[in-house]
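hey so i finaly got around to running the thing on Helix-turn-helix domain-containing protein from Nonomuraea salmonea. pasting the sequence first so u can double check i didnt mess up the copy paste, my clipboard has been acting weird all day
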Amino acid sequence: MARAKTTRTLYAAGDLDYAVPPGETLRELLEEKGMTQRELAERVGLSPKHVNQLIHGLVRLTPEVAESLERVVGTPAKLWNRLEADYQSTMARLRSVRNLEQHAGWLKELPVSELVKRKILPEEPSDKISRIDQLLAFFAVASVDVWRELYEQPAAYAFRKSKVQDSKLGPLATWLRLGEIEAQAMLCGSFDATALRASLPELRALTVLPAQEFRPRLQKICSASGVAVVFIEEVKGARVSGVTRKIGTKRVIQLSQRYRTDDQLWFSFFHEIHHVLNGDDEMRIEIAGRTDIEDPKELEADRFSADTLIPPQYASRLAGLTSKAAVRAFAEEIGIAPGIVIGRLQREHPRRWPYRNGNDLKRKLDLLET
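ok and heres what it spat out for the 3d tokens, dont ask me to read them lol
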């Protein structure tokens, strides 16, 4: 009859879901040899109490004890050391699992189904702990507590600036992390604010091009100055239009293409460019419905974007544009897309150019498919 599979062989095979101390293997060996714990204690020079604690996993099996056991019971010291290391590793994993069980509610905060749909996460696993582990790996954090430390403070600041009440931390953090992953994969030169500022006319000229043409050129120009520009589809519930931040040595501009029109895209882009040029390394998140009119940095960024797209020497002529034909001619004269002019008119002259009037001049964008 074949011998039954022992605890020792089970543990070595790694198919237990609980921690087995090396003392269990030692107990089985003593039984096979007909040796008592007291006799072993005398031969290895330990107290009977210490041997008993060793067998029950209450004390570590040290390398010195492993060497002594090799001489007394004939099992190589490297096996004892491996069993002890495996035991400690398994104990750490089980402690981690117990800790994760306390954070099962975290899953409800995150857009898990959205990440599955985008093929970032695999299909639903059989247990919540596995899903939490996958999400921690996605965010590249050791624990849920660390995740909150990284994302809650900048998100809270962004939410305070917004009149929108249904923006949520989980979707926002997810969107930010997706951009971080893409930005880290982009090759960029060293950050050079002077070179970036010098490239502004070239970047502005891209506004007349279709998305499939301007996106790679925009990213190439900015990356040469140490700025990674990424376009990440908005995660439902985030209600975010853009963010600037520093990741490693890179400055990152991340845009959601929330409104999918060229006027909104280009205004957001140059708004974020100003934050980068202004040496603002803190994370600045732009939530839809922003009401931070008292924030001088945001006011400056808005004015910079507006003046870059339509310089002040031309802006005085906006009030005189009364037809779509005039808008097209003006846009062609100053070298920008007519949709950008329409967007400016709708904001500054809503009576003459109410919302929807002239929207057919705006180019619909889908930068996520280019």
